[in-house]
Amino acid sequence: MKINVLTLDNGKAGSIDLDETVFGLEPRKDILHRMVVYQLAKRQQGTHRAKPRNEVKATSKKMYRQKGTGGARHGNKAAPQFRGGGVAHPPRPRSHSIDLPKKVRRLALKHALSAKRAANELVILDAAALDEAKTKSLVERFGKLGLSNALIVDAAVDEKFGLAARNIPNIDVLPLAGANVYDILRREKLVLTKAAVEGLEARLK
After folding, report:
1. Which domains does the chain have, with CATH numbers?
2. For residue 13, what pLDDT band results from cuts at 50, 70 and 90?
3. CA–CA distance from 133 to each of 130, 136, 164 (Å)?
4. Which residues have C-beta within 8 Å of that of residue 93, sequence separation ≥ 6?
5. Regarding beta strands 122-125 and 12-17, do their DSSP bridges make them parallel or antiparallel, or are they unpaired?
6. pLDDT tens-place string over residues 26-79
7. Contact in structure between 121 and 189 (CB atoms under 8 Å)
8. Do 123 and 18 contact (CB within 8 A), yes or no?
């Protein structure tokens, strides 16, 4: 399938053929959902922790006599029902990551790219490079392209372009190696350079 290639100033720069096996699939929500859950679970730190009663520093002396008080029988201030006591079944440091086959992960990226193309939310640029790192001029160029919420992927991010774009709200810039399903789906538009398209097709074929 052919798609027009634009310049940063919203000019025409020819067209490019997109691989049907990468950009022409029928998007499957179940695969995309599995991938997003996988990514978000994997990036959880899992460092949450609380002390159980055996780790709380408290006296082990019996609080009051066993019988005759009219109250419940207690023998330790570290019990969970007391203020300052331990937590019953507390969270422990652990990994939240789940397994997802490599084939499914590759397929999910194809479906994410296909979903953006099917929704007409895919923009192809001939290049994403600037002569000087000026955020104001880049915002004006994005305005011409209609980009207010977008992920921009290049084979290798131009240093000046990256500096100019990093302070623009709702604009993310990633190198080809960092392209992922979650970041593609969380932004309205997906902007790929011609070099990024070639790299993705070579990576996913």
Report:
1. 2-45+96-204 (3.40.1370.10), 50-90 (no CATH)
2. confident
3. 7, 9, 5
4. 46, 47, 48, 49
5. unpaired
6. 999 999 999 999 999 999 999 999 999 999 998 888 988 999 999 899 988 999
7. yes
8. no
